[in-house]
């Protein structure tokens, strides 16, 4: 059971650290030169989900332990990792290649931050008119070469061992890929996806490549953030990329605009509703405690509105996180002590905990996530309408408000120590699927 981690990846100066700073309270160093980041930075971002408090008329009482809930829009924490930039040849150790690839082992999903403005070249150096379309495939290719290269180097030995111990293909691949965070479930899905059925000792180089390709899809679901949309040349590059790639995996963003707006909001110059184009100033709200703007600041805000907010509807950074959570298929689940008040014994803590769990997590697995004591003394579980649910039932949006019954009183914190975003991971454990 590990927290879910989403990693920002991409070439140097694409805006990975800026993105982290824009969506979390981290203060990663940002610079217009390659390899500003060497050691990974991390922060917690909050992404919005629909909170059941609204449906049950409890919005005014809703009391999240982490994040916040505003009129039924609940902001749930998730860990974001910002790693060193990757340059061509990284899989052969160029730049900070090996370290970068090592850091990736912890990630569950990737956000590939692409500088869509064409103002940085393949190595992250300042330029003009660079075509970013190649960056998308290049990054995947680099990760592919890293894994394929490592397998290919010792293929003879892998196959000899495979034959000697009469292992199944999945078992052998699992041993080889577990260093990249592969579980048996992921390996099985990889084999299904690749369509490869031949015995391992007959695999050609092309077969190994095909399997690695399928593995990348299963192990590292990726969202592409086309960043720096505020810059002039971004437009034409965006339309070119959108025509070529799956639009469901692409989000437009301006990390710079988001950082700017959040900073002004913090300094009380504006009211800014993250994820929207809604910016209000003292002029809009004369009776508010907002500070007045000088002409220069007013001009900068208008520029961000014209170039980003009014054009694209938002700075896009929140959409990037939402998409990444969506590709992982995480399900929000709410452990409660009472199915009528959703509160603690003292009437407080309404919908206090929200845990994002992996798809396929069962009720009993969820009990263990909330607190091992609950799983140990588990008697049963009920959902809305006091409807009984089985311990092997999969949790979905239909039964995700759950009251556990236990054979003895568990520790007072036991129904609600669920921390941030966690789960019985189909990535981090071999849960039954
Ligand atoms: N115009 C514009 N500039 C941006 C945006 N995001 C980042 N930048 C700028 O791009 C440069 C590089 O940003 P970083 O966030 O340091 O990039 P990085 O990907 O973390 O780079 P490395 O740590 O070197 O790998 C900085 O000058 C940022 O201010 C954006 O949305 N718009
Ligand atoms: Mg950086």
CATH architecture of the domain at 330-415: Roll
- What ranges have pLDDT less than 50 throughout 5 or more consecutive residues? 412-433
Helix-strand string:
EHEHEEHEHHHHHEHEHEEHHEEHHEEE
- In DSSP terms, counting alpha (H) and pi (I) runs of 4 or more, how many helices? 14
Question: Quick one: biggest sheet?
Answer: 7 strands, mixed
The total of beta strands comes to: 14
Oligomer: single chain
Q: Taking Cα atoms only, what radius of gyration do you get, to the nearest Å?
A: 24 Å
* Strand proportion: 15-25%
CATH fold name of the domain at 330-415, please? Ubiquitin-like (UB roll)
Which structural class matches the secondary elements? alpha/beta
Separation, N- and C-terminal Cα atoms: 16 Å
- Taken from the alpha-carbon principal axes, the silhouette is flat
Average pLDDT works out at 90
- Helicity level, as a percent range? 25-40%
CATH class of the domain at 330-415: Alpha Beta
Fourth-level CATH superfamily of the domain at 330-415: Beta-grasp domain
Name the bound molecules.
guanosine-5'-triphosphate, magnesium ion
How would you briefly describe this protein structure?
The chain has helices spanning 16-23, 52-55, 97-104, 133-153, 155-164, 169-177, 184-194, 205-219, 234-244, 255-266, 295-312, 317-328, 363-370, 372-376; strands spanning 5-9, 41-50, 68-70, 73-82, 109-115, 222-227, 250-253, 271-272, 279-280, 331-335, 355-357, 378-383, 387-389, 401-406. The chain has 433 residues and is α/β, with parallel strands linked by helices.
């Amino acid at each position: 059971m590990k927290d879910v981690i989403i990693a920002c990846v991409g070439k140097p100066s694409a805006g990975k650290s800026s993105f982290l700073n824009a969506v979390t309270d981290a203060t990663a160093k940002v610079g217009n030169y390659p390899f500003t980041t060497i050691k990974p930075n991390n922060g917690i971002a909050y992404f919005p989900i629909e909170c059941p408090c609204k449906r049950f008329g409890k919005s005014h009482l809703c009391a999240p332990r982490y994040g916040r809930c505003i009129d039924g829009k609940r902001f749930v924490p998730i860990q974001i990792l910002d790693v060193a930039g990757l340059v061509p040849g990284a899989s052969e150790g160029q730049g900070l290649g090996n370290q970068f690839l090592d850091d990736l082992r912890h990630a569950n999903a990737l956000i590939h931050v692409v500088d869509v403005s064409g103002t940085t070249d393949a190595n992250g150096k300042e330029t003009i008119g660079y075509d970013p379309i190649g960056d998308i495939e290049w990054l995947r290719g680099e990760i592919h070469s890293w894994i394929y290269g490592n397998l290919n180097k010792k293929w003879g030995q892998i196959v000899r061992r495979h034959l000697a111990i009469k292992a199944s293909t999945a078992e052998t691949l699992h041993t080889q890929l577990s260093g990249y965070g592969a579980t048996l479930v992921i390996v099985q899905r990889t084999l299904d996806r690749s369509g490869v059925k031949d015995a391992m000792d007959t695999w050609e180089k092309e077969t190994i490549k095909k399997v690695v390709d399928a593995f990348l899809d299963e192990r590292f679901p990726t969202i592409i953030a086309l960043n720096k949309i505020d810059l002039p040349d971004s437009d034409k590059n965006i339309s070119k990329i959108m025509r070529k790639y799956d639009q469901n995996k692409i989000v437009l963003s301006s990390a710079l605009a988001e950082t700017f707006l959040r900073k002004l909001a913090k300094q009380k110059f504006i009211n800014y509703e993250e994820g929207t184009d809604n910016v209000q100033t003292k002029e809009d709200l004369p009776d508010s405690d907002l500070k007045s703007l000088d002409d220069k600041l007013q001009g900068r805000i208008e520029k961000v509105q014209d170039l980003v907010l009014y054009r694209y509807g938002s700075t896009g950074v929140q959409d990037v996180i939402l998409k990444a959570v969506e590709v992982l298929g995480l399900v929000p689940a709410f452990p409660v002590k009472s199915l009528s008040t959703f509160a603690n014994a003292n009437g407080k803590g309404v919908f206090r905990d929200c845990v994002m769990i992996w798809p396929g997590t069962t009720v009993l697995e969820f009990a263990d996530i909330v607190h091992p004591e609950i799983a140990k003394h588990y008697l049963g579980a009920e959902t809305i309408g006091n409807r009984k649910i089985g311990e092997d039932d999969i949790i979905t949006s239909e039964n995700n408000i759950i009251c556990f019954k236990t054979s003895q009183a568990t520790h007072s914190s036991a129904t609600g120590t669920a921390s941030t975003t966690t789960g019985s991971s189909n990535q981090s454990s071999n849960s039954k699927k």
